[in-house]
Design goal:
Layout: H1 6-16, H2 24-30, H3 34-44, H4 53-80, H5 82-103, H6 106-109, H7 112-126, H8 145-162, H9 169-176, H10 179-187, H11 191-218, H12 220-238, H13 246-273
Helix pairs in contact: 1-2, 1-4, 2-5, 3-11, 4-5, 4-10, 5-12, 5-13, 7-12, 8-9, 8-11, 11-12
């Protein structure tokens, strides 16, 4: 049976993965489907893959809609209104953190070692800010064989980050200098580029999914502590600064509040839907 409400979940995950510093894994956690997503990815790589189609087809439809409908908008917003755009996602991520702590029932389950793991993970992700400079690279219009090889491995590495909460696949693309080329290719619907990056993403997801599933099954609370730490640390990476311009500052505060409200509403909706 197809789970059609996964279309909007896929749309939100797809939008988040277009933004450097925002993780689709974070959105999957607040939507309450993270563990199901990891198990489903592993299921797709097994002989019982058909059983997972009802979950993934609507999800992929939502991701595809995000790529087709939103990539141009994101490209425009990041180029012309970067600070308010990033503040929306900062608000969204901050709003997610209490939900994640409640989900893992941290007051009952967390021991000192779990808080330590959380802090270490947060510091590790926050420390990547030193690599945050302008690594986007110029858009490559005419791609050669070596460019496709780089894009394939970029998709592979980005997908590994994509399903880790707090670790942004787009940020990995930024570090590799492929972000602008990939975003341009998505917004202009360049089929060879999309297929190349997509192949890398599929392989990366299959390998990372197995590792995360093993950790969740054997070290559930510790794994969640690390993931929550990754989410917290990503706020530092995402922070774009604060320009004193009155219009931009006002817009940024409003989008921050909008992000907080969106996280609260998403949490409430998913809690009611189970």
């Amino acid at each position: 049976m197809f789970r059609w409400k996964n279309i909007y979940r896929g749309l939100l995950m797809g939008i988040s993965d277009l933004i450097p510093g925002v993780s689709g894994g974070t959105i999957a956690m607040v939507l309450g489907i993270y563990r199901r997503l990891i198990n489903g990815i592993n299921g797709l790589m097994s002989k019982n893959w058909k059983k997972e189609l009802g979950f993934f087809i609507p999800l992929l439809v939502g991701v595809a809609l995000a790529i087709i409908l939103v990539s141009k908008v994101m490209e425009h917003l990041l180029n012309h209104y970067p600070q308010p755009t990033f503040y929306f996602f900062i608000g969204l991520i901050i709003g997610v953190i209490p939900f994640l702590l409640k989900k893992v029932e941290f007051k009952e389950t967390f021991k000192p070692r779990h808080y330590l793991l959380l802090v270490i993970a947060a510091v590790l992700i926050a420390s990547t800010i030193v690599f945050k400079g302008d690594h986007s690279g110029a858009v490559k219009e005419s791609l050669q064989l070596n460019d496709y090889i780089v894009l394939f491995f970029s998709g592979w590495l980005a997908s590994t980050a994509m399903i880790l909460p707090g670790v942004s696949g787009s940020f990995v693309l930024l570090l590799l200098g492929s972000y602008q080329t990939v975003i341009h290719g998505l917004s202009s619907f360049q089929i060879p580029l999309i297929l190349t990056v997509g192949a890398g993403i599929i392989i990366g997801l299959s390998l990372t999914g197995k590792a995360i599933s093993l950790l969740l099954n054997k070290y559930t609370v510790s794994t969640y502590a690390v993931m929550i730490g990754l989410v917290i640390g990503s706020v530092v990476v995402l922070y774009p600064g604060f320009k004193p311009d009155a219009t931009i500052a006002t817009a940024s505060i409003m989008t921050l509040l909008l992000g907080l409200a969106a996280a609260y509403l998403l949490g409430k909706i998913e809690h009611k839907q189970g």
